[in-house]
């Protein structure tokens, strides 16, 4: 596939997605540039996860287009989307509970065209980020704690050497110490040039970690600005995220 | 006291011994058939009605290859490979289009396949049973009885194939792919695993295992077009009793049921001994519906 | 139903009924029997539709209900002299109801696939029992008996001719159809359909889902047994082959080919299948199931709504 130098990494163009008869996304548009961290905020149920799933190819939109590096990927099955450089860390982690930590990592690591040295290097990087995973490498995924499972889900995504990671509510249900660990990981990934589309309920963390913010409500994007222009107490935050 | 010794004398020890061996042998073949069935069900929620016919096709291909080459081992290998390929082709043409539809459509589709395959075999080979020659004859002495070596070989080979399959699942990339897809198809796709092909591959493996069972079983009874029906029913019972998708449970259930049936056949007509497996199924459904050999869910 | 479509429907109904009544008068014997067979298998398929199409439970156990209806009728006709038509029907219905109750008790709580497999295995249990219990059931060879007379005790008794038999079958099937239609359109039928669409929600609303399913199975079993009785009377024999699960499979094929959830669909499906069988038998002799089976598979993939659904869509365009 050709790469146009000027195009965004991910471009979502007026997508409409349905779950059965429910019209979840009503013309969502957004973009993520190379190496950017973009935050996607909004209350529960507005369609943030559905947007990520549509980009990933887990759901097909009925209208609209998704582009990756300028090439249309709408309707491409998820395993092809993963192979071109999009990784997905879902809301409920969804690690393979009956596979060991090592086997979980291998689902991303065992790809064609990757040399043994590179695989080793990737593994070591993951284990240096997440030492707890190294300790538990032969344990079944289901025996890990919630925080460890989140680490594993992120590490697993990293094994794909993605250009962008779709992160869905990584800090949900985690203790404050783990939350700041997540914050650090996002920072490190950003420094390495991996783009991140971050869906979160944790507003301060998102504002801090992202370069740009989209806010969704009822299936479409209602606000879009640089993160630096937003403060937690702003009226727009209150409007779309306040209780 | 006399009654006790009379009773002890009346127990047909030799029969029990023979039936124990028979039960284990049939049990291992049944375990091999059921493993394929449970693999297919576990990974893609397909109840493969045509599984017995894949068994039967394997046996027939075995007959043909054996007649052409004279080698039992070649027959075994070729039948397994050919039926695996046929299975893959069937899955791609008839089951892939049904992905995502009501799971009952796949039962119906595989039922249709079983009818077509059965009648095709009847058409090509006729109603008269064929024979597969055992690779070697010869008995060994068990106390004062004679028991054929070949039957022991079947049990050993079936165990070896199941063991090999288990190893394949546990190690190696493709084993991980199959296990990941079985646990969470969606997430497996998101990790770049080509799930549609994993499905095809799993179906092919299941089909191959059924075919191997057919060739191994061939010398014990005649090979005919209807031989698959009984096996598919028993295999279903084994899969339910052992716990759907539970490989170890299926194997234990297969041996358990086969032993019970073998013992029952000492006293009743073999056609009626099959009721034993039905009773086991009913009891399982009543008291432990998740499977007899599955640890009780907490 | 709107007034207009009701008129169309009942007109069509009367036309088809008239054609079926006229059938024995115009068709040669072979085809007359053919039509009667379609009606009987159609009744069986209709009974199965109650479960598959309306309650959403695919059952492979109908051969047991059908078979017990057949053998029940045989029992009446062989043990009571002179052979009584109504007693045969009664015995047959009781037999199939008993089997239905038995099967229902064990399988009601099972979902989808487990239910299908369990009903299949139950039908095999009955097959083995009937096949091996030779003293009572005649084993492999089955039972033969005389056809009873069409009689209303005390009023008249006249032996069946092939025409009157056809009309009797037609009357029975028509009445059954009307009864089943009434039931499926009733509040009870609505609950069944609600169970098919969303069982957990139906349960949450407060319906005793198990009880409804049980009644559905019994209803289905009764009419399947009735079909068995009619078959016994028509052919004067009962054989274990009809209890083998393949009959259940063929019943399901009729349902799918015709269109589930329509009551009429299964009859159309039965007619279609039997016609295909007749046609292909000319070329493939007893291997007709090869092409018919392939057609069945293709229909599942491309015409999941069956013939009726396909025609409906085609007419709407």
Layout of strands and helices, then pairs:
The complex is a heterotrimer of chains A (243), B (298) and C (317).
Chain A: E1 10-19, E2 22-32, E3 37-41, H1 48-56, E4 63-68, E5 71-72, H2 78-84, E6 86-89, H3 101-109, H4 116-129, H5 131-135, H6 146-158, E7 164-168, H7 176-191, E8 195-199, H8 203-209, E9 212-217, E10 220-226, H9 235-241
Parallel strand pairs in A: 3-8, 3-9, 6-7, 7-8
Antiparallel strand pairs in A: 1-2, 1-4, 4-5, 9-10
Helix pairs in contact in A: 3-6
Chain B: H1 2-10, H2 13-44, H3 51-69, H4 72-95, H5 103-125, E1 139-142, E2 145-148, H6 149-170, H7 173-183, H8 185-190, H9 195-217, H10 227-242, H11 247-267, H12 270-273, H13 275-287
Antiparallel strand pairs in B: 1-2
Helix pairs in contact in B: 2-6, 2-9, 2-10, 2-11, 3-4, 3-5, 3-9, 3-10, 4-9, 6-7, 7-9, 10-11, 10-13, 11-13
Chain C: H1 3-26, H2 29-55, H3 62-79, H4 85-107, H5 112-132, H6 134-137, E1 143-144, E2 150-152, E3 156-158, H7 162-185, H8 187-197, H9 199-205, H10 209-235, E4 237-238, H11 245-258, H12 264-284, H13 289-302, H14 306-316
Helix pairs in contact in C: 1-7, 2-7, 2-10, 2-11, 2-12, 3-4, 3-5, 3-10, 4-10, 7-10, 8-9, 8-10, 11-12, 11-14
Arrangement of strands in the largest sheet of chain A: 6-7-8-3-9-10
What's the tally of helices of chain A?
9
Distance between the termini of chain C: 20 Å
Q: Give the largest interface.
A: B-C, 36 and 36 residues
What is the mean predicted local confidence, pLDDT of chain A? 89
**Low-confidence sequence ranges of chain C:** none
* Rounded Rg of chain A: 18 Å
Tell me the distance between the termini of chain A.
45 Å
Low-confidence stretches of chain A: none
Main beta sheet of chain C, described? 2 strands, antiparallel
The name CATH uses for the topology of chain A is Rossmann fold
Percentage of residues in helical conformation of chain A: 25-40%
Order of helices and strands of chain C: HHHHHHEEEHHHHEHHHH
CATH homologous group name of chain A: P-loop containing nucleotide triphosphate hydrolases
């Amino acid at each position: 596939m050709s790469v146009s130098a000027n195009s965004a990494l991910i471009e979502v163009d007026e997508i409409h997605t349905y779950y059965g008869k429910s019209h979840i996304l009503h013309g969502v548009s957004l973009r993520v540039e190379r190496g950017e961290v973009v935050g996607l905020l909004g209350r529960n149920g507005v369609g943030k996860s559905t947007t990520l799933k549509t980009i990933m190819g887990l759901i097909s939109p009925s209208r609209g287009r998704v582009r990756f590096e300028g090439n249309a990927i709408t309707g491409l099955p998820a395993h092809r989307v993963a192979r071109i450089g999009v990784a997905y860390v879902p809301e409920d982690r969804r690690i393979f509970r009956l596979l060991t930590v090592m086997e979980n990592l291998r689902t991303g690591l065992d790809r064609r065209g990757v040399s043994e040295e590179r695989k080793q290097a990737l593994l070591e990087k993951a284990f240096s980020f997440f030492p707890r995973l190294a300790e538990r490498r032969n344990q079944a995924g289901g025996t890990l704690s919630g925080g460890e499972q989140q680490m594993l889900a992120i590490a697993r995504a990293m094994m794909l050497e993605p250009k962008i990671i779709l992160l869905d509510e990584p800090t949900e249900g985690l203790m404050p110490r783990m939350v700041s660990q997540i914050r650090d990981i996002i920072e490190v990934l950003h420094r390495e040039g991996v783009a991140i589309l971050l869906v979160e309920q944790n507003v301060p963390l998102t504002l801090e970690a992202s370069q740009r913010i989209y806010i969704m409500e009822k299936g479409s994007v209602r606000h879009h600005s640089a993160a630096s222009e937003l403060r937690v107490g702003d009226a727009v935050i209150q409007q779309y995220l306040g209780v | 006291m006399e009654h006790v010794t009379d009773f002890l004398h009346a127990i047909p020890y030799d029969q029990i011994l023979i039936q124990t061996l028979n039960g284990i042998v049939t049990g291992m073949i049944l375990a091999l058939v059921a493993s394929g069935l449970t693999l297919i069900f576990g990974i893609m929620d397909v109840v493969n009605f045509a599984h017995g016919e894949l068994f039967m096709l394997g046996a027939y291909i075995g007959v043909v290859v054996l007649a052409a080459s004279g080698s039992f081992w070649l027959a075994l290998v070729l039948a397994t490979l050919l039926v695996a390929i046929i299975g893959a082709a069937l899955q791609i043409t008839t089951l892939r289009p049904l992905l995502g539809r009501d799971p009952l459509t796949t039962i119906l589709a595989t039922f249709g396949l079983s009818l077509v395959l059965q009648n095709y075999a009847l058409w090509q080979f006729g109603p008269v049973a064929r024979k597969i020659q055992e690779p070697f004859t010869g008995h060994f002495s068990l106390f004062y009885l004679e028991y054929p070596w070949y039957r022991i070989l079947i049990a050993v080979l079936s165990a070896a194939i199941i063991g090999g399959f288990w190893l394949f699942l546990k190690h190696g990339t493709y084993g991980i792919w199959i296990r990941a897809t079985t646990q969470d198809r969606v997430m497996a796709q998101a990790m770049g695993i080509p799930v549609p092909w994993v499905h095809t591959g799993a179906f092919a493996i299941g089909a191959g295992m059924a075919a191997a069972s057919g060739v191994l079983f061939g010398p014990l009874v005649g090979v005919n077009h209807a031989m698959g029906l009984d096996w598919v029913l028993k295999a279903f019972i084994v899969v339910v009793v052992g716990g759907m998708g539970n490989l170890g449970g299926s194997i234990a259930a297969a041996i358990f049921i086969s032993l019970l049936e073998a013992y029952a056949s000492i006293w009743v007509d073999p056609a009626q001994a099959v009721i034993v497996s039905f009773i086991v199924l009913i009891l399982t459904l009543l008291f432990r519906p998740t499977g007899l050999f599955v640890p009780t869910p907490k | 139903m709107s007034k207009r479509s009701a008129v169309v429907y009942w007109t069509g109904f009367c036309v088809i009924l008239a054609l079926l009544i006229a059938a024995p008068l115009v068709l040669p014997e072979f085809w007359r029997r053919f039509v009667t067979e379609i009606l009987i298998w159609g009744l069986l398929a209709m009974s199965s539709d109650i479960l598959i199409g309306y309650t959403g439970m695919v059952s492979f156990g109908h051969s047991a209900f059908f078979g017990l209806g057949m053998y029940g009728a045989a029992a009446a006709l062989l043990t009571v002299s002179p052979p009584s038509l109504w007693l045969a029907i009664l015995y047959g219905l009781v037999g199939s109801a008993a089997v239905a109750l038995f099967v229902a008790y064990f399988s009601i709580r099972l979902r989808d696939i487990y239910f299908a497999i369990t009903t299949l295995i139950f039908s095999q249990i009955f097959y083995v029992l009937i096949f091996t219990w030779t003293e009572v059931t005649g084993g492999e060879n089955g039972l033969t008996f005389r056809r009873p007379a069409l009689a209303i005790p005390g009023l008249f008794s006249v032996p069946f001719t092939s025409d009157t038999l056809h009309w009797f079958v037609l009357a029975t099937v028509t009445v059954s159809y009307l009864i089943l239609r009434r039931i499926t359109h009733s509040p009870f039928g609505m609950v069944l359909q609600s169970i098919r669409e969303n069982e957990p929600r139906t349960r949450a609303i407060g319906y005793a889902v198990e009880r409804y399913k049980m009644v559905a199975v019994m209803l289905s079993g009764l009419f399947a047994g009735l079909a068995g009785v009619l078959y016994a009377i028509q052919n004067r024999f009962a054989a274990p082959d009809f209890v083998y699960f393949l009959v259940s499979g063929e019943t399901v094929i009729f349902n799918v080919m015709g269109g589930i959830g329509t009551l009429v669909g299964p009859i159309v499906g039965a007619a279609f299948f039997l016609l295909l069988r007749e046609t292909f038998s000319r070329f493939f002799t007893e291997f007709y199931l090869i092409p018919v089976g392939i057609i069945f598979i293709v229909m599942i993939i491309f015409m999941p709504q069956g013939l009726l659904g396909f025609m409906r869509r085609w007419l709407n365009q």
